[in-house]
C-alpha cells in the first residue's frame, strides 16, 4: 500500500474521539508498512511531554507518534496552549514557551502562527508518506473560523480532505454530523469527504436507516461505525475524560491479599495527570481522582500531581479542606507523593518574584511536609533526565518554572527530589513508567501505608500496555472502517462533486 497523502480528522465536539481515531489510523498504516506521522496544528492541554529534540508538545501527539513507530518531535504539535486560568493560557510555539494570551488577544497572533503551522506540516509531508492530522474542538465553532488554525482553516490552506467524527454515546450524533457540515461555508464543505461514528454499543444494523438518510441529506458516506472499547485510557489528551466514577483505568485484582488504594488530587489546573496511569496499570492498585476531603479517609496513598497554576491550586487545596486532610494523612504516618507542582506544594515556601503564575512578589506557605523552598523563574525548564533511584535506572521528563532554592531533605532520585520516609516528591514526570522503579515505589508506599498484604506484580510492562492499546486502536480502524474508501480519501482528497448542504447559517470566511 502506498497511499501518499494526508487527511484531517475533525470532530463534532471535544472528546469525540479524534485523538484515538488518529492514533488508530496511524497504527493501521504503520502495520501496513506506510511511513506515517500524526499532526495537531494547535492543541489546548496541560498534559504534555518533552520531546527528544528538546521541546514541549501535547501528550496525545506523543502517544500517536508511538502508534506510528516514530520519535515525537515539536513538528507534530507546533502550537500548544496551556490554560493557567479560565481566561489565560501560556502559548508554546515549536516546543518553547512564548508568552501568555487571553482568548481575545490570541487572535492577534494567529496570522503569524498560521505560517508556523504551515511550515511544520510541510516539513512532515516532505518526510513521511502520510500525515494524519487532528482537528481541535469542532469545525462548527464558526465564531472562531476567521482565526482557525487547526480545523477548516488548516484544511483550506493545505488542501486536506476532512473526515468528521461523532460520539454516539453523547446522543444526537446524526444531528451533530449533519449540523457540523451544514454550518460550514461551501468552500469548507467541499473538503468534508465523509463521517465516522464512534463509541457505538449494540447492533450497528440499527443505525443503517439513519446512516442512509444522512448520506442522502449530505451526499457523504459514513466510513464506519467504531464500537465502544473498554480499556482505552492511557495517554488521553484529557486523561480525566477517560475516568469512570473517579477510577482511573480498569483495576486488575491484586496478586496478594490486599489492594493499594491511591487517591490523586484533581486540581482545577491539573497538569500531566497521566503520571498516575503507570500506577493504575499494576494489578491490585486502585487509582482514583478526588476533589473533596472525605475521599481521602480510606486511601492508603495520596498523590499530589502537577499543576499549571501551582499557587492558585494550592489556594484551592486549602479552601476545599483537602490541604488539612493531606497534612492529617501524612501526620498519621501514611504516605504522600508529590510530582512537579504537587512536589512544590509539599514544601515550606513558594515564591513567585517575577509573576510567572501569580502576582509579582507572591510569597506563600506550602504544606510544610518537606523541608523545601521553591522560587519561580521566567524561563521554563525542559529536560529529559536520566539517573538512578534505589539502585535501579530511572528516566523521566521535566516541565516547570519553579526551581528548588533550598532543600534540607535527602534526595529521592540521584541528586533530585525529596525523601522524608513516608513523604516523597520529585520534579520528574513519567518516573512510574520505569517498571523496576515503579515496583520499588509501590512496595515502599504499601509498606509505609501498612498494607502488608499487598504484593507488587513482577510482570507488568507499562511500555507493553501502551503498545497493546495502540494495537487495539489499529484493530478498530482495520475491522470497522471502510479502509479502502479511507485510502482513497488519503490519496486523492475529497471527491470533486460533493453537494453543498444549506442551513442558512453558513457565511464566508477567509
TrEMBL record:
Domain CobB/CobQ-like glutamine amidotransferase, residue spans: 261-436
Sorted UniProt keywords: Cobalamin biosynthesis, Glutamine amidotransferase
Species of origin: Pseudonocardia endophytica
Protein name listed in UniProt: Cobyric acid synthase
InterPro entries tied to this protein: Class_I_gatase-like, CobQ/CobB/MinD/ParA_Nub-bd_dom, CobQ_GATase1, CobQ_N, CobQ_synth, GATase_3, P-loop_NTPase
Pfam family membership, one: CbiA
Family (UniProt): Belongs to the CobB/CobQ family. CobQ subfamily.
HAMAP family reported in the protein's UniProt record: CobQ
SUPFAM superfamilies: Class I glutamine amidotransferase-like, P-loop containing nucleoside triphosphate hydrolases
Active-site residue list: 340, 429
Amino acid at each position: 500500500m502506498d497511499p501518499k497523502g494526508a487527511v484531517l480528522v475533525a470532530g463534532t465536539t471535544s472528546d469525540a474521539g479524534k485523538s484515538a481515531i488518529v492514533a488508530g489510523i496511524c497504527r493501521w498504516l504503520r502495520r501496513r508498512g506506510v511511513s506515517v506521522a500524526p499532526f495537531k496544528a494547535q492543541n489546548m492541554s496541560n498534559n504534555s511531554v518533552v520531546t527528544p529534540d528538546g521541546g514541549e508538545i501535547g501528550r496525545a501527539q506523543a502517544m500517536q507518534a508511538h502508534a506510528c513507530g516514530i520519535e515525537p518531535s515539536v513538528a507534530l504539535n507546533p502550537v500548544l496552549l496551556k490554560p493557567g486560568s479560565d481566561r489565560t493560557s501560556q502559548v508554546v510555539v515549536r516546543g518553547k514557551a512564548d508568552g501568555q494570551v487571553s482568548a481575545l488577544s490570541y487572535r492577534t497572533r494567529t496570522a503569524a502562527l498560521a505560517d508556523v503551522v504551515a511550515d511544520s506540516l510541510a516539513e512532515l509531508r516532505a518526510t513521511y508518506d502520510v500525515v494524519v492530522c487532528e482537528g481541535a474542538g469542532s469545525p462548527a465553532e464558526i465564531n472562531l473560523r476567521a482565526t482557525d488554525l487547526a480545523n477548516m482553516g488548516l484544511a483550506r490552506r493545505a488542501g486536506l480532505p476532512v473526515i468528521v467524527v461523532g460520539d454516539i454515546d453523547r446522543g444526537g450524533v446524526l444531528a451533530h454530523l449533519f449540523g457540523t457540515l451544514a454550518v460550514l461555508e461551501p468552500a469548507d464543505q467541499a473538503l468534508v469527504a465523509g463521517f465516522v461514528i464512534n463509541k457505538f454499543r449494540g447492533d450497528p444494523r440499527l443505525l443503517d436507516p439513519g446512516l442512509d438518510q444522512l448520506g442522502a441529506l449530505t451526499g457523504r458516506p459514513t466510513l464506519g461505525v467504531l464500537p465502544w472499547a473498554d480499556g482505552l485510557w492511557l495517554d488521553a489528551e484529557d486523561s480525566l475524560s477517560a475516568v469512570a466514577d473517579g477510577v482511573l483505568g480498569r483495576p486488575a485484582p491484586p496478586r496478594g491479599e490486599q489492594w493499594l488504594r491511591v487517591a490523586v488530587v484533581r486540581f482545577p489546573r491539573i497538569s500531566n495527570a497521566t503520571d498516575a496511569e503507570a500506577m493504575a496499570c499494576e494489578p491490585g492498585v486502585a487509582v482514583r481522582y478526588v476533589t473533596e476531603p472525605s475521599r481521602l479517609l480510606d486511601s492508603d496513598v495520596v498523590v499530589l500531581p502537577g499543576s499549571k497554576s501551582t499557587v492558585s491550586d494550592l489556594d484551592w487545596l486549602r479552601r476545599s479542606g483537602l490541604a488539612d486532610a493531606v497534612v492529617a494523612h501524612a501526620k498519621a504516618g501514611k504516605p504522600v507523593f508529590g510530582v512537579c507542582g504537587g512536589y512544590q506544594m509539599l514544601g515550606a515556601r513558594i515564591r513567585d518574584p517575577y509573576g510567572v503564575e501569580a502576582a509579582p512578589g507572591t510569597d506563600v506557605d506550602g504544606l510544610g511536609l518537606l523541608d523545601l523552598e521553591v522560587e519561580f523563574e521566567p524561563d521554563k525548564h525542559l529536560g529529559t533526565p536520566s539517573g538512578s533511584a534505589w539502585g535501579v535506572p530511572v528516566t523521566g521528563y521535566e516541565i516547570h518554572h519553579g526551581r528548588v532554592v533550598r532543600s534540607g531533605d535527602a534526595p529521592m532520585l540521584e541528586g533530585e527530589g525529596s525523601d522524608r520516609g513516608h513523604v516523597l516528591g520529585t520534579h520528574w514526570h513519567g518516573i512510574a513508567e520505569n517498571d523496576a522503579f515503579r515496583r520499588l515505589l509501590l512496595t515502599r508506599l504499601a509498606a509505609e501505608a501498612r498494607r502488608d498484604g499487598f504484593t507488587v506484580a513482577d510482570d507488568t510492562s507499562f511500555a507493553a500496555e501502551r503498545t497493546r492499546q495502540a494495537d487495539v486502536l489499529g484493530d478498530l480502524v482495520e475491522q470497522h472502517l471502510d479502509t479502502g474508501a479511507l485510502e482513497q480519501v488519503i490519496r486523492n482528497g475529497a471527491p470533486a462533486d460533493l453537494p453543498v448542504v444549506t442551513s442558512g447559517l453558513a457565511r464566508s470566511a477567509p
